[in-house]
Structures are given as structure tokens and as C-alpha cells.
Inverse folding.
């Protein structure tokens, strides 16, 4: 097994442990959070399953991009299961159940949505493509649904054990993610750097920015919902995207494109969260009791 395969396996394990950690803290009320808010479900699905593939299609049609970049963009656009999303939202201090529920909902729908969306690849590139329901379901179950359900079951049956496991699982997942990411970036850096000057960086930057914008605008006026849906729309499932690309383009190396996407997503997402925190701080300052008293 090559080093790259080991690192990718480590990243998948990190994702599994991360989602398991969410499950150890989640309840059924958390997972069913969006079901009780159908308007949010509709807007989230529009952003995650419709707008992002349209963005990728537009970029592929309008810009002259290298084939691996085109394939990576489309594969990311039709991989709407952001398994690391609730961690980012938790760090941002927003309502965690919405992110967990969106992850679970997107995971369930992707079993049907991704094989249908793969037909988009065939139309775009004028050749047959395939990604069976069984293959997608296995990936989704392995990296999202199963670890989430196992964690929730442990919390329900043995809450004490679940509480003790939460911190170690989260720490192991975080360390593994950082180590694998560093090795992956280090080994792929020359290939990633080569993408900078051929339009890939601008395309991926536009993809992430438009995803954040679409989610933010469709979420309504509640800041927590804006953050969750913006990140949910811009964040995609890298393992699913690699699987889709490798299945249909086995001769193309998509790893550098996916690594560059993750780097861009992290940087732009951090800037977006910083902007939102400043907005919230100003809003709190404007409505503080001291200011109200001075104005009366």
C-alpha cells in the first residue's frame, strides 16, 4: 500500500471518529432538528443539492479548466455530506443540532441523489458514467450514518461511558486529521502548487465563496442558521468526491485538486466565521443595556 493510500485511509478513519464523537453527544431530538423545520430543509437542499452542481456546471462551461479540476469540481458539487461540519460549527459557537441534523439528512438523501447526479457528469463530458447506489450507500454508511448511530446508541444505553469516551475520541480524531493532512499536503504540495497558475485556485475559490453566499442568503436572518447553512453548502465530502472521480476517471489524479479545495475552504471559511463573529459582536454592543440607558 502506497503512502498516499495510507494517508487517505487515515483521513477516512479521522472522519469516522469525528462523526462518532458527534453521536456520543447527540440525541434523537438533535438529529430530527431539521425535520421539525421543513422550510429550513427545503432551503438547505436547494443550496446543497441544486445550487452547487449548477455552480460547478457553469464553471465547467464558461472557463477553460484542466480536466482534473473540472472533474474535481463536479465530484465535490455532488458530494453533499460534510462530515466535519458540526466540529467547525461547534468552534464557532452556533447551534450544534442543526449541523448534525443537516449532515444526517444529506447523508440519507445522497444515497439516491449522488447516483442521479453522476448522470450530470456523463452529460457534461459526453461519455457514460457510473456510481451505483450500493457504492454510494456503503461510503455514506461507513463515514457518516453508522458512526453517528453507534455514538447515539452508546449515549442512550450507557451515558456514563459515552461521556467518558467523548473527549478521547475527539482528541484522537483531531490528531489523526492533523497528521494525515500535514503528510498529504506535504506529499502533494508540488502538484498543488502547479495548479495555482492554471485557473484551479480561482475556480475553487469561486466555488467556495458562492457556496457560502448561497447558504448564507437562503438561511434567513438568524445568524446561527446563516453560519450552519453557509458552511454546509460550501463544505463537501472529500472521500465521496475522490471515490466518484476515481470510479469514472481512474487515470486522473484528483488528490491535488481535493487538497487545494480543502485548503481554500479552510481559509475562506475561517474568514467568513471571523466576519460573522464581528457582526454578532456589533449587534450585541448595539443592544447592550448600557447603550440603551444612554439613549434614553
Amino acid at each position: 500500500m502506497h503512502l498516499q493510500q495510507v494517508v487517505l485511509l487515515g483521513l477516512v478513519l479521522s472522519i469516522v471518529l469525528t462523526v462518532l464523537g458527534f453521536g456520543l453527544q447527540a440525541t434523537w431530538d438533535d438529529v430530527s432538528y431539521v425535520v421539525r423545520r421543513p422550510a429550513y430543509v427545503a432551503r438547505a437542499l436547494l443550496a446543497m443539492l441544486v445550487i452547487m452542481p449548477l455552480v460547478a456546471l457553469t464553471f465547467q462551461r464558461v472557463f477553460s479548466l484542466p480536466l482534473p479540476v473540472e472533474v474535481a469540481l463536479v465530484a465535490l458539487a455532488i458530494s453533499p455530506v460534510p462530515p466535519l461540519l458540526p466540529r467547525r460549527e461547534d468552534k464557532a459557537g452556533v447551534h450544534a443540532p442543526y449541523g448534525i441534523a443537516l449532515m444526517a439528512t444529506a447523508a440519507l438523501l445522497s444515497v439516491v441523489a449522488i447516483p442521479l447526479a453522476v448522470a450530470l457528469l456523463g452529460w457534461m463530458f459526453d461519455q457514460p458514467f457510473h456510481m451505483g447506489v450500493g457504492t454510494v450507500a456503503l461510503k455514506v454508511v461507513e463515514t457518516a450514518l453508522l458512526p453517528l448511530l453507534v455514538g447515539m446508541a452508546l449515549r442512550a444505553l450507557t451515558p456514563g461511558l459515552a461521556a467518558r469516551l467523548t473527549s478521547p475520541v475527539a482528541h484522537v480524531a483531531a490528531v489523526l486529521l492533523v497528521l494525515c493532512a500535514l503528510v498529504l499536503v506535504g506529499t502533494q504540495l508540488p502538484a498543488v502548487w502547479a495548479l495555482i497558475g492554471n485557473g484551479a485556485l480561482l475556480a475553487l475559490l469561486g466555488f467556495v465563496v458562492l457556496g457560502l453566499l448561497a447558504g448564507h442568503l437562503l438561511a434567513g436572518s438568524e445568524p446561527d442558521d446563516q453560519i450552519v447553512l453557509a458552511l454546509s453548502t460550501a463544505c463537501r465530502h472529500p472521500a465521496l468526491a475522490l471515490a466518484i472521480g476515481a470510479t469514472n476517471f481512474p487515470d486522473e489524479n484528483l488528490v491535488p485538486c481535493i487538497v487545494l479545495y480543502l485548503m481554500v475552504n479552510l481559509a475562506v471559511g475561517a474568514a467568513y466565521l471571523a466576519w460573522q463573529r464581528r457582526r454578532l459582536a456589533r449587534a450585541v454592543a448595539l443592544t447592550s443595556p448600557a447603550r440603551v440607558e444612554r439613549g434614553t
